């Protein structure tokens, strides 16, 4: 297992280099370092000297990918791409183009993101799995048909509708919770209720439908028939046998998102004014802050790859037949 | 104004998305003709044809699609003659659909007004005939302008027009039903009366009753729109006084384009790379897997934001390529589809790779290889046709997600051009108006209702397609 994980971690390196190259290309195809400097320094009284100075200070004064003036290995290393990318691999994110410490920003901003993402995931998962088991239990009856159609209807409603209606009804009409904002600790609870609730509600349609197909696929297998033939009750078959075996497809979907919970939800955070990592990324995109965007993309890919490995490991836990090699 | 012959009165103006829409229609038509001749393709479609929900959904989809297609025929009207005698065309691009609903487009008020309102939303200084000035809600220029005494006449007028609409709709439906029955009777060599009975009792193979009921709802809505929409603003007006009903109808094309062209653009790459990876294995497989793992680990939103920035800079640097505002908005739309396609092709690619890995071990392909058939020919003759059902399922299932994504992207600021009519832009513009007193809810409502109808119909249809083509996933 250890050898497997080590090998997977080594596989991650070319992927991360590729991700960095893509981010880099996307940013510098449209933007020159001069543009970025001008944006950061403001529109007024920008002299060529000031731009040069800013570029030297922030390390944008080198060639982008290939340095003609250097020899040997330095042709590649003395460039913006190399100097800016290599530090990422030891998780040194440096400072943003505005001069803020990115690592510190990420560490403080990941808590609000987690505070919303974790409850949404857990509550959502519990509700979706219970509902889908209910539908699987009543399969091919009117309850199932109505449930499936309701699912499709819920699935067809834009998440923006849930958010706007939720804000309007809960905050403006009933004055139950604040419309947006965030606070630390227990005081923040009232800010979290609505985003979590809406996150769960928006996911019910798709989630229930997805888990229902998983359960139905399992419920037609031979071992379920055997269990029924033994005279087990339908409920026991459902919980003891089907649920257990449906864990693998369920895990595939769930474990991979766990690491990325740190990054938060872009839409929810910007609608509810929550200072998490999702809104951090979108602000950085709008401000064209390359350093932050690069750091967030790098972090995102690391967490994604981490999620893939985690999924494989969790398989071995729920299914002893699977061995990693 | 000078008189023009029919052929001089307009000049076609085919936008990039129009070309793509025509190509897509061509594809669909070819596929239909091809599928008709092949029993294994005809069988799943025949199964879809017997499902009530799916057929109702497809009637709704057809209605949306026909609006979208009419709105994709762009041209410019003649304005006058140039000095050298040639015809001068307006710089404004219009579409066949815009010409059909011209009254809706032209009835522009000053600012907000509620659905069926006869007065503006905001108070204004009004000069009375005697010269004194009073502050009141002014009458609308078009909405309910035909009424002399709105307070008394409005309810009666609306009721009367609604009655007319109902009569019109019923008359039209009776005609349609009879025509359909006559056609069916001719096909089946029986008389109209018994055919009609079979159709209306729900005993026919095609779910005629559900289809006719759906059509009836649509026809009813259309005739209401014709009767009432021309003299009132049935969904109110927006901030600059445009009819919201017109805006939401115009948004249909944007939604459809994003939902269909995105997958159309990504299809060639996904199919080629996926099948190559699965069939050739070895380093090709490694390379393709590397590409899609890398691409899927970059957050989508960053790719999209960067892509939208890119096209913006390109347009600013090459203004001569984009003569009108519509051309710019259109180029941005194509590019958005392209970039959305790049973010969404990896899933299909992975599925196709898995399927071709499985297929290449199949006996008939082993046999073909043993006979020395060229690899390219094996892929084209055996693997590609046998993976087509996966492509179809993914395309159909992806449609609704893309329509919904457009709204979110426009909100984040990386969606379609702000000048383009789209549900995302409508929602984004109306969102802040929820804080007004009394609230301006109608733009939001119209955008959400139309988006919901399209997405729901697409989802129901997609379910039927998936069930028919992939028996393993059959839902019950």
Task: Characterise this structure.
The complex is a heterodimer of chains A (325) and B (476). Chain A is built from 14 helices and no strands. With 325 residues, chain A is mostly helical. In chain B, 67% of the residues lie in helices and 6% in strands. Chain B has 16 helices and five strands. In chain B, the strands form two sheets. Chain B has a three-stranded antiparallel sheet with strand order 1-2-3. In chain B, strands 4-5 form a two-stranded antiparallel ribbon. The model of chain B has no long low-confidence stretch (mean pLDDT 85). The interface between A and B is large, with 48 and 42 residues.
What's the total count of β strands of chain A? 0
Quaternary structure of the protein: heterodimer
Q: Which structural class fits the helix and strand makeup of chain B?
A: mainly alpha
What letter string, H or E per element, gives the SSE order of chain A? Answer: HHHHHHHHHHHHHH
Short description:
The complex is a heterodimer of chains A (325) and B (476). Chain A is mainly alpha-helical and 325 residues long.
Break the fold down into its secondary structure elements and pairings.
The complex is a heterodimer of chains A (325) and B (476).
Chain A: H1 2-30, H2 33-41, H3 48-58, H4 74-77, H5 80-86, H6 102-137, H7 142-155, H8 159-173, H9 189-219, H10 222-229, H11 234-255, H12 266-272, H13 277-287, H14 290-318
Helix pairs in contact in A: 1-14, 2-3, 6-9, 7-9, 8-9, 9-11, 10-11, 11-14, 12-13, 13-14
Chain B: E1 10-12, H1 16-37, H2 39-49, H3 52-70, E2 74-81, E3 87-95, H4 96-100, H5 102-106, E4 124-127, E5 133-136, H6 150-188, H7 192-200, H8 208-229, H9 244-280, H10 282-297, H11 300-317, H12 325-359, H13 363-370, H14 375-412, H15 423-431, H16 442-469
Antiparallel strand pairs in B: 1-2, 2-3, 4-5
